[in-house]
Specification:
The protein is α/β, with parallel strands linked by helices and 251 residues long. It folds into two domains: 118 residues, Rossmann fold; 112 residues, Rossmann fold. 29% of the residues lie in helices and 22% in strands. The protein has seven helices and twelve strands. The strands form two sheets. Strands 3-2-1-4-5-12 form a six-stranded parallel beta sheet, with helices on both faces. Strands 6-11-10-7-8-9 form a six-stranded parallel beta sheet. Helix 3 links the parallel strand 4 and strand 5. The longest helix is centred in the middle third of the chain and has 14 residues. The radius of gyration is 19 Å and the shape is elongated.
Amino acid sequence: MQPNLLVLGGTLEATRLCQRLAEAGLRGTVSMAGRVANPAAQALPLRIGGFGGAEGLARYLAEARISHVIDATHPFAAQMSAHAVAACDARAVPLIALTRAPWQQTAADRWTRVSDIAGAVAALDTPATRVMLAVGRMHLPAFTVNPQHFYLLRLVDPPVTPPAFPDHAVIVDRGPFRQEADAALLDRHGIEVVVSKNSGGSGAFAKIAAARALGLPVIMIDRPAIPPRPETHDPEEVLQWLAHAGTERGV
């Protein structure tokens, strides 16, 4: 039987994987949460919106006759990933995660590692400084308890309402980014510290490389815990896994 895949997407890696799956002649759907107003074009049919928790996802897997699930969400989409593990376990649907290798600190980096957003907020309880805050739109309100800073915000979509920071600048742009351009951006805004999730991969690493080159400190937020599941960083290994998990295409 031809497999029917569900790709949990929203990342550059998911977009590239869908292209590879389509080239291999595989059938499926890519699902996004809908937090980005204009998502990138996808090579597989696109579904927008949530599922209603793990139980809702389990129902969807049954109703849509999904044969395999590929979790290619952001490494910090911990709730969605946990729901995927629970739903696939409940329906006995094979699951694999295509995720980015985390960034590794080098001797040239000046990282302060924190375990979560609250830790990053606490680390900014300092005298006024100039911050590049690269944590995503949803987490911005948590940082308003430190209004003394200037915040440089780079967002995929223009904010619907102005961010609640007395002193800030918004850059609307979509990666991948380049180190030289990010170094110029940090210099132009006089940034003194970068706050970032350890998202991994290459598309968002430019700001970390730029901070390293400029000798700037980085408050690095560690990845959240996710239930155990098979993982790979290589799209080709996803296709190999699909063959091992019972597809009939021999890819």
